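Exercise: predict the fold of this chain.
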Amino acid sequence: MKITVILAGLFVVGFAIGFIVSHISSKDRIADGEYQVTVCSTTDIHGAYFDSLYVDNQVNRTSLANVAAYLKQLRESGVDPVLVDVGDNLQGDNAAYYFNYVAVEEPHVYPRIASYLGYDAIVVGNHDIETGHDVYDRVGSELAMPYLAANAAFDRDENGMADMDEDPKNRLAHDAYFQPYCIVQRGGVKVAIIGMTNANMKSWLSSTMWHGIDFQIISSMAQGLVDQVVSKERPQLVVLAVHSGTGAEVADRENEALYLASTLRGVDLVLNGHDHRPLAREVDNPEGPVVLINAGTKAVVVGQADFTLSVRNGKVVAKTVDYKLVPMDKYAPDPDYVEFFRPDFEAVKAFALRPVGYLAADIDLADALKGPSSYINLIQTVQLNASGADISFAAPLTSSGVVPAGVIEFQDLVSFYKFENQLYVVELTGQQVKDYLEYSYDNWVNDNGPSYNWDSADGIIYQVDRSAPAGRRVAILSMTDGTPFYPDRTYKVAMTSYRASGGGDLLRNGAKVDPSQLVVLDRMKDIRSIVGDYIAAEEEVVPMVATNWKFVK
């Protein structure tokens, strides 16, 4: 076994493996000889389109401008890679927000970037769906390459398709809302790219974002679709690109990639994303080793697999593959790319630097991980004022950084709220509120999971005993106006659309409420915009640390 090691920081990586393949029929014979095919991947770009930020001549450490430089070098060396992105491109930066919701009469910048870079296929991610039908349907119509998500099926009840085959492994390609797969030719080699999106979508997103679509568990249908594609298309290489976390070698609705790589027959390469964890490794599979590549996030690395195919008597008889993660900070942004998209950058910059209001003191975002903070207190105040709810839940969406005192510009709002979650008002009983908080603080006290699932509350006065056993940490003393809090009373509660849809399991595991049965009283616009409206309406925002709750012991 040949081993190639790329040493660059923490990015390790490359092995060479060889195995005999037999799924190619003589129906699609190719000339005898040796063939080289390179597959490159990106994932979870989250709006990192430009090399520069919007203030003080700051620069992005990596962006698609760096990817452009690397791809140019590859192509100039004679390598024409099959280029795949594995999803989550339409959210996370003011550039994405501007073209999603402001410059809606102009061609969206992301399809133009994808064409410039020469992508062969783009997979749909969960944060792409979170932008809403108007955005991802428009982007899909403007992309010059396929938008893939084979497991995002038309909702059969809503679209009058109830008579179709109900067995997921027998689902037909025309049942998919997006394109299920595509075929790419490279140097005489036929490459099949099958795309899938995250199956846990409905647990995170409001139905307004995905109405008319049903999301199937990838592993429930992947083998059937691979078999169909191989039988129909006779490809020499099969690439499965899934916007799903790596996970483990067991089925997991949100994180299926490792399980898929270890079990699927007829797949040569699995590309994944979603969890932002760069990875390149060989996975044991009953048919022989399969390479799994996750290119992390924000163009920090590009995943690369270099295949060599040996053809004898018109059939592929052996394949070897070298694979690696290529750090993009080693490649300066491509000046041609930067210049080509400069008008788009300048338009976003002008939008991002619009003054919104004034902040009287710094807000340290990391304080929210320690306890009551001015950061979360601002979000809670905004949510209560906008919704008229009795109680508000909120969690930090970032764990680092400072929003400095002075003029607040629109780009600062991304620091406060980097996702386009909507504000919901729902009904919960007092007991459900307490149980919800018990579950949240159990995670918080034990440092379990991401901090964006560590909700605190406003509208009530309470304390949290760190040393108490699980389920008995939270003592609710009263409402913030001093009136009693009643466990059996129904309250109006403000929370994010992510949380109301089941995100983080605080409703299901904490409050013991099935999100599909949750009573939703109101659905408002995205919370970032509501924060902006609040700051704009105030002559001066004075940050204040929350005083309605505290940790004890």
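Check your answer against the key: The CA atoms of residues 204 and 503 lie 5 Å apart.
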